Amino acid sequence: MLYIVGLGPGEKGQMSFQAWETVKNCEVIVGYTTYIRLIKPLLSDKEIISTGMKQEIDRCKVAIEQAKMGKEVAVISSGDAGVYGMAGLILELLAKEEASLDVQIIPGITASLGGAALLGAPLMNDFCHISLSDLMTPWEMIEKRLHAAAQADFVICLYNPRSKGRPKHLEKALEIIKKYKKGETIVGIAKDVGRKKEAAIVTTINALDETQVDMTTVVIIGNKETYVSKGKMITPRGYHL
Ligand code: SAH
Question: Residue 20: helix, strand or coil by DSSP?
């Protein structure tokens, strides 16, 4: 059996009971080194196959091979495995094969939901996720989605917002978004959710300090009704109070 497990954003308390039990009961754990570290206390008696970033395909192939040998295997992703994680890749690899393998996907709290809870209630109305990583999606497509989402005034959760390799992506994205949303639009920055350096910053598009944003940050840009009260970011649902 092959389990694809979302671990949540970082800390044990934000991992589902099902995820915890699954990892505990599997013989082989496959995952990116950082995530293996997050669940270390659970791993004493297990075979661990960990590889660095950008080796996702190899990692998933190894997991499939191990599961075919009859072992109980868990592939772990941070957050939810189906949100820019391993679930889709494994299903795609299996779709190319004739033989079938039993797969179970265990959901997890994705970064935007963990971050939203820290920031207040920014996702109370329609929202979307856009990854600013152009490793697998052409930048033109990302721009097109930014235009569409901002024009429709979605609350926008930006994943992979800024890294050393792509220092300007957030800046470029905000330039597009500002064509449709005002500079005073509220923005929440959720950093290292569920991890040691966890931080939540509420600011605006104009005041945003990009140096506060890195690869373990999710940026949540409000809609035109989003406001701040008592330090919390609130997107009204539409109740008449
Ligand atoms: N499967 C993951 C997302 C992987 S994409 C999930 O569901 O959360 C990687 C991006 O997710 C990062 O660049 C960052 O934008 C976001 N992210 C992942 N973990 C995070 C955390 N603990 N705190 C803030 N953002 C995080």
Answer: helix
